[in-house]
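Objective 1.3, modelling of assemblies. Example input:
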Amino acid sequence: MSQSTLAIRRISAHAGAAPGENVERDELVCKLIDTTTCIGCKACEVACLEWNGYTFTETVFDNSYQTMPETTWNYWNLIKFNEHEREDGSITLLMRKDQCMHCADPGCLAACPADGAIVQYTNGIVDFQQQNCIGCGYCVSGCPFDIPKFNPTTKKMFKCTLCVDRVSEGLEPACIKSCPTGCLHFGTKDDMKDLAETRAKQLRENYGIEKAGVYDPAGVNGTGVIYVLHDITNPEAYGGLPKNPHVPWVVRIWKGPAKWIGNLAMLGGLLGVTLHYLRYGPKEIDAEKHEGEKP
Amino acid sequence: MSTTHVISSRRPVGESGGRIVRYTLSERVHHWLGALFYIYCLITGLAFWSPYMYWLAAIVGGGPTARFWHPWFGLAFTVSMVWMYKMWDRDMRITEPDRRWSKAMEYYVKNEDEKLPPVGRFNYGQKLFFWLMLYGVILLVISGLGLWFVESIPWSLRWLRYIAVTVHVIAALATIGGFIIHVYMSTAMVRGGFAAMVRGEVSAIWAKTHHRLWYEQVTKDTRDSAQGR
Amino acid sequence: MTNGWIDIKNTDMMLIMGGNPAENHPCGFKWAIEAKRTRNAKMIVVDPRFTRTAATSDLFCQIRAGADIAFLGGVVRYAIENNRIAKDYLINYTNAAFIVKEGFQLPEDGLYSGFDAGTQTYDKSTWNYEEGGDKSGEAATAAPARGHTGGATAANANAASTGGSAASQGQQPGSGSGPGLTGQGYTGMGAGGAKAMEPTKSAPTLPGKVAYDLTLQHPRCVFQLLKQQYSRYTPEMVERITGVPKDQFLKAADTFTSVRKDGDMKKVGTIMYAVGWTQHSFGTQIIRTAAILQLMLGNIGRAGGGVNALRGHSNIQGATDMGGVFDIWPGYLKAPNPTDTDLATYLKRVTPTTSKPEHWDSFNYWSNTPKFTVSFLKALYGDAATKENDWAFNYMPKVDRNYSWTQIWDAMYRGNVKGMFAFGMNGVAIGPDSQKNIDALKKAEFLVVGEIYPDETSEFWKSPGVTPDEMKTINTTVYRLPCAGFAEKDGSMTNSARWLQWKNVAVPPPGDCRLDQDIVAQIFLKVRDLYQSEGGKFPDPILKLTWAYTNTLHPALGDLAKELNGKALADLTDPKTQITIKRGQQLPGFAWLKDDGTTSCGNWIYSGCWTEAGNQMIRRGTEDPAGQGIYQNWAWSWPANRRVLYNRASCDPSGKPWDPTRKQVWWNESAQLWQGNDIPDFKPDSNPKDHMGPFIMNPEGVGRIFGPLAAFADGPFPEHYEPIESPVQNPLHPNQSNNPVVKKFKTAADKYATPGDGFNIICTTYRMVEHYHYWTKNNPMNVQLVPEAFVEIPVELAQELGIKGNDKVKVTSARSFYIAKAFVTKRIRPMTIDGKKVYQIGIPIHQGYRGIQEDADRNARTIANRLSPTVTDPNAYTPEFKGFLVKLEKA
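Predicted structure (tokens):
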């Protein structure tokens, strides 16, 4: 999003090392979303729009409190509502703020073919750099959370920036700022993890919510957005939060071994034909050689 | 020798030492259009393939431009392949002589062509390349549409996204392999081949050497027509 | 609120009922979450729908709309049966030990003693304490029995009691004020009461010395009556009436009363409610039940306790404080009626006298009523208010009948009100029975609307159903005055916690928009000019009104705030402290007010908001030394900047805090003073030995479990009555199903349904977090969050009717219909009420026929309140917006 002053740890499709790699250490930042205290007020949705300068999107009522089915290129923060039937038959309303998870191992960045279109700062924020984005949509395939979205007008991909422009100036993200109940927290990953674990423990011990736990999926080496869930065994109930998210193995192979196998194969092909030429040379037709002499 | 450069018809010009029309203008135009589209897709595709080749995008106008035109050129290539299919479908069918030739392909590679059985207008390798490109482009266009409109594939069917990536990569690599051999053979290895695709003509002896059955067919046809049969 | 928003963080237990704070008070709700996070507080939510508040709760009960008294009465019974009672508190701080007059009868057949069926009113003479002394050990001669005595019509009973009860915080956005503060003298005038007041000869008064039994054994003591009253509210009966299964109810009752387990006084529970309680034909009595429960549990006056009314608008508390209701003056002074022929008569009628056990003490703060009244009149008429002319008392209008919200519209509908000024509200959309209001406006001669958007009221002729031909016949002249929005005005707003918070102007009003006070001032000055030049029948009240603002055409709100705070009109000296205030100086607080014309004060409860030290409301100090969220230096809280009312009750009778970890105030023996982290709501030097009651606004000095005499129109104890439109007959007394003193309106527009007519689905209306009333449908940000009108329908009902999510449906009541999309939800479940399967549906009120979506024709353009009936609570005159009957079909 912004040309920020933060040091960069990882750069998409970059031939060579990232400038911040192993050079600068920074505290990882993290957003904690306590779904047990979320009231679904959507203040974060509006704050996100207003801070990022987006305005009105026409929406349609769809048998839900949910504003729209999924996040869009200009609606990065969406509370997902689910009327969930508990095991004892009672009903509850699960509400989860959906946005980019800022994975430690970002699938989008791995999939991206454009040099510098996706960067990961040393504080862990994964950010799209639209000036480098080519709009290919590979990040969509790379993301285990279905977050990056395509703007058909500018042909660029967009998603939550974790308000990198605010964070780099020492402010909390806009959604955090707007949350009225304190269900959203922002701080270092370590602090947020502690806070989340403390809260989950409180829920288990004092409120009898035995399955309460913290969602910080190991499949992507943890995320820069973590959740406290009433039922950590069923994250899918929270508007489709994947149980064990990881960068799709196809993307891993594609951007890993396949790339080198492919490159080697292509190189091998070129080498092969060259060697062939050196060894056997061109097909010459004897008759043709003498053609000029005959008539 | 005197040759005529009227190439709008298959016109034999003598038994040997004459020139034979190998590719009509239409065939050549389509070949080169296809080549243009393919090479564009190749360059841009390679740019997206590897960071070490991303600079290739710069030579065709930069990343976003490359990304914008890649699928359109891909579609154009598909159309040109369909056209070539219509043009060459009959010529490209694998025949009995091809099978015989394929068994002796080793001699072809070693430039011991005299040990090869005669073949028609296209040899077995050329035909393979044609079918490779044809099936390749079908896979590429289908998977390419998946990549192009990736957001239209619902999250619940996201495995389709991954299949699209896989298929596109494999199909592309396969066509690249074919393409390398094709270019090598038509330019460096088989002398006269490139000129044939440019000017449309080959010498009779070239035809006789590389595509004897075709040569015989063409010359026979010409004689027949000359004799009013 | 008896307490305040931040104070909720101090609680151990929350009962949220008749309110949906997560959605309608999301910022305040953070303190409920805070209590959960930091104190492991439990939260019980009781609501007709599983709301977003319920999503954060620990226990949810789905209740039938309008069955709240039965539920709470059941909890009262449970607390008594299981001895979950704060006994010392109950005996010393409530009237539980007071003995009620012989002849008083409980409503076992649905009627209290003294009912007159002809006028639908009560003779409340038996609703009184017995005069006498200690009656402990005495046998009762007459236990209250079933049935009722006939009695004389008792309109205009002497209002011996005013305010002060725990439930006294107003609660009704849009109309009404706190129960106990309004309605006295007009209790016979519920609905359709457009008749003159009958003068009363000798209204009964409370006895000066009340008979009592501190052992609580006397069969006519309040506690025994209470026990008897709610003995009928068994868990089985609660289930029959409310639809809450017995085991769920018992779990909720057990959880809530667990704060008083084994009589331990340390823990505290709070009750939060909003218009889900007030908007019933027995709304005041629901709040009363909550107050009774909280008094029994000893939760009032304590940090983390109280009965907390969550106000729906940013300044509705301020509106009621300022007398924005017909029967009160600013500061909850009672408005005079035609029997008050002079000031002395009026003051005698409205100033309560002490009524208590002989050896107890009572501050009876309302005994200062003359000081507040004279100072108020001095603020209005300045030098024109003299001792000789009764301080201009006769300039003030006398309220001769009920002028409440629904009465105004009814009068216009009948052609008696010719014109209307509508500022800061959307009368047509507010309803009830929007169609009646629209039809009323068609008959009006003029309508002046001050608004920031064109709204349903200012374009009432655009309502669906009005044909172009009909439009031509409407002769109402409509004046639309563009006003300023909240960010374009300065001034203070009073929140639910009674804080007056001053705000500055963020941006100037755009274009021709003007500030409301400028418009009102300029109209007033024009009217005054007309009286000046043309005279009139009685011009003095207009001509002599003080208008001492710096800029008379544009009165600054600072000037007005200073006027409300009050100033000295002569040099004043406090005889005790010898502190002197010079003539013309701002008063430090209402303790300085005098009834001799030497002080002026526009609203006594706001006295202290703008002192010589300046604007106290603009303060933003964040010091909180006690860590209890008191924030004494943040804004200014009425009364006297104290944050928790009745905080004397946070200590035991000897003056020690019940919970030493949450010390609010305490008796300092050495200083012989009450001190505290909060400002003591008490006589500062009253030694606990004197046994002064903590509820200083009641003449008894104690909290009222029994509401004597004219305190309430419909009974001294709350009784469950069915909503006017109910799917069942009252299981307690089927022959007296509804509230007996509630009158239906009688115009052609006023139709009321019965299940027999096919109206058998309960409909309730509500607000959503995404919208603010009727005007955010003009704001794109809000519109995209909830773009369309919908009706929440239980899955089972939808299946029965073949309705799928997003289908267009039509809801029909006896009055009109409403069109919206179906929201088929699992969050409302079918209920069994008195053995009958009953469905409830819910409608958000926000949509109408003016707004972004409406103007683009993307919404059905019907107003939710077309469905609601015109019928009101007999005490606060709040319409019954919740729990009426409808039909539902696919549209």
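Residues 1-16 of chain B have pLDDT under 50 and may be disordered.
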